[in-house]
Each structure stands twice: as C-alpha cells, then as structure tokens.
Amino acid sequence: MSGAEGDYYTGEYLQDIAETRLLEIGGERLRRLAHDEAGRYVDERYPWDGQGAEPAERVSAYIAVLWQCGDAEEPIPR
Q1: Structural domain tally of the chain?
Q2: Over the stretch 18-58, which tens digit does the pLDDT of each residue have?
Q3: What is the distance between the alpha carbons of residues 46 and 38, in angstroms, rounded to a whole number?
Q4: Residue 20 belongs to a domain
Q5: How many Å apart are CA 64 and CA 38, to the nearest integer?
Q6: Is residue 64 in a domain?
Q7: Which of 11, 13, 37, 46 has CB atoms 3.0–4.6 Å from 1's, for a disulfide?
Q8: Domain presence at residue 4
Q9: Which domain holds residue 18?
Q10: Rounded to whole angstroms, how far apart are CA atoms 43 and 72?
Q11: CA 76, CA 54: separation in Å to the nearest integer?
C-alpha cells in the first residue's frame, strides 16, 4: 500500500519502522512471530481473495498488530 503523492507515512514506511523495532526488541524470532500473528489476524478479520489492491483496512490492521506485538514485548522503563 502506498499513500497519496507526498504522503510520507505510507503503509510500507510504517511497516518498515515496526519491523525494525521488532528486530531491536526481540530479534528475528520476534519479527517472524509478529508477522505470523498479524497474518492470522487479518486473514480472520479482513478476508481478501488476492484480487485487486489489498484493502487499506487490512494493511492498516496488519501493521497495527506488528506494533502491538512490539508493545507487548518491549521492556517497561523504570
């Protein structure tokens, strides 16, 4: 998914940041687990037959789950 011309915060950009954060927090294992969780979630909640552009709601939900997985694993600052 990409945003409008000049839109800096596209889905790809936000997913890249989420993936970098997951790698920093828990390495490749956490990144893979987060992608698995995100895939299961969007497949259940936002089914898509693969035809046409992927719906924005599905992309947004996928990225949100990546961020939530990072939030769940990130150490709480003391």
Answers
A1: 1
A2: 999 999 999 999 999 999 999 999 999 999 999 999 999 99
A3: 11
A4: yes
A5: 8
A6: yes
A7: 11
A8: no
A9: 11-73
A10: 21
A11: 35
